[in-house]
Amino acid sequence: MEVLKASDVPVSSIVESWAISASWAPMIFIFTTYLFLVLKVGPKFMETRKPFQLTNFTRVYNILQVILCTVFVTWALKFGLKIDTFWKCLSDFNDREKLLEYKIAQWWFLHLRLAELIETVVFVLRKKQNQVSLLHVYHHISTATIIWMFMKYCSTIMDLHTAFVNSFVHIFMYFYYFLSSYKSLDKYTKKAKPFITGLQLIQLVIILGQNVAAILPSCHVTRLFYVQAINAAILIYFFADFYIQSYVKKKQK
């Protein structure tokens, strides 16, 4: 009987062996539980209770996100991501070890984004149910779902550009959230809020452009980029509408 070396095991088989990517079941369970908690159980639980003061928790959480996003961005640059290839069609990996390293990084990136579901739970516990908006919930679920699909089915480095831009923007975003937890900085953070939303919009436009490059007929990579492009377009609509309603129209009034 031939003994298979670790280096002979296909990367796809290794990914399939991970609990989170063995099937759709774990993701469906996570999202079903999430929606049940933040839309039904949580609000019902908080009906007769005072808002929880979770300031210290959110500060630690936001700083952890800043650190972990910085680690991911640094890793991506060391891994070989080049900014000048952002708009170019890149072929699939032909180096098994590099592909495996990338898949492990995707696994960590997925769990980093799944951790963001905690934010919605915090909104509910602080009795800020108005912040549990369609944009907020859709953004978290769609982002994690697409990362999962790319981890399970895709073997091109092109998606790393998307993860890089997303993590880079999140460094600024979570640092802003950290600063905004200090009331003494209100006059500065309130002025910065439209710029943070604008930065998220710019991020989505860049991601959409990069995905358009991937779905051109001359680029033979996974068709999952169609899904990601459509999702980016939907999020651009949501964020643009939020920006107009929250900043442009309020300023006009």
Automatic annotation (TrEMBL):
<feature type="transmembrane region" description="Helical">
    <location>
        <begin position="20"/>
        <end position="39"/>
    </location>
</feature>
<keyword id="KW-0275">Fatty acid biosynthesis</keyword>
<feature type="transmembrane region" description="Helical">
    <location>
        <begin position="60"/>
        <end position="77"/>
    </location>
</feature>
<feature type="transmembrane region" description="Helical">
    <location>
        <begin position="132"/>
        <end position="151"/>
    </location>
</feature>
<keyword id="KW-0444">Lipid biosynthesis</keyword>
<feature type="transmembrane region" description="Helical">
    <location>
        <begin position="104"/>
        <end position="125"/>
    </location>
</feature>
<keyword id="KW-0808">Transferase</keyword>
<feature type="transmembrane region" description="Helical">
    <location>
        <begin position="194"/>
        <end position="213"/>
    </location>
</feature>
<keyword id="KW-0472">Membrane</keyword>
<feature type="transmembrane region" description="Helical">
    <location>
        <begin position="163"/>
        <end position="182"/>
    </location>
</feature>
<dbReference type="GO" id="GO:0042761">
    <property type="term" value="P:very long-chain fatty acid biosynthetic process"/>
</dbReference>
<dbReference type="InterPro" id="IPR002076">
    <property type="entry name" value="ELO_fam"/>
</dbReference>
<keyword id="KW-0443">Lipid metabolism</keyword>
<keyword id="KW-1133">Transmembrane helix</keyword>
<dbReference type="Pfam" id="PF01151">
    <property type="entry name" value="ELO"/>
</dbReference>
<dbReference type="GO" id="GO:0034625">
    <property type="term" value="P:fatty acid elongation, monounsaturated fatty acid"/>
</dbReference>
<dbReference type="GO" id="GO:0030148">
    <property type="term" value="P:sphingolipid biosynthetic process"/>
</dbReference>
<dbReference type="GO" id="GO:0005789">
    <property type="term" value="C:endoplasmic reticulum membrane"/>
</dbReference>
<dbReference type="GO" id="GO:0034626">
    <property type="term" value="P:fatty acid elongation, polyunsaturated fatty acid"/>
</dbReference>
<keyword id="KW-0276">Fatty acid metabolism</keyword>
<dbReference type="GO" id="GO:0019367">
    <property type="term" value="P:fatty acid elongation, saturated fatty acid"/>
</dbReference>
<protein>
    <recommendedName>
        <fullName>Elongation of very long chain fatty acids protein</fullName>
        <ecNumber>2.3.1.199</ecNumber>
    </recommendedName>
</protein>
<feature type="transmembrane region" description="Helical">
    <location>
        <begin position="225"/>
        <end position="244"/>
    </location>
</feature>
<comment type="similarity">
    <text>Belongs to the ELO family.</text>
</comment>
<keyword id="KW-0812">Transmembrane</keyword>
<dbReference type="GO" id="GO:0009922">
    <property type="term" value="F:fatty acid elongase activity"/>
</dbReference>
